[in-house]
Amino acid sequence: MSKGSKTLIIVLAVVAVIVFGLYRFFAGNYNKMVSMEETVTSQWAQVQNQYQRRLDLIPNLVSTVKGYASHESEVYEEVAKARSAAGGVVNIDKSVLDDPEAFKKYQQVQNQLGSSLQRLLAVSENYPELKANENFLALQDQLEGTENRIATERKRFNDVAQAYNTFIRQFPRVIVANMSGFRAKAYFSASDEAQSAPQVKF
Question: What is the rounded distance in angstroms from the CA atom of residue 157 to the CA atom of residue 153?
Answer without folding.
Answer: 6
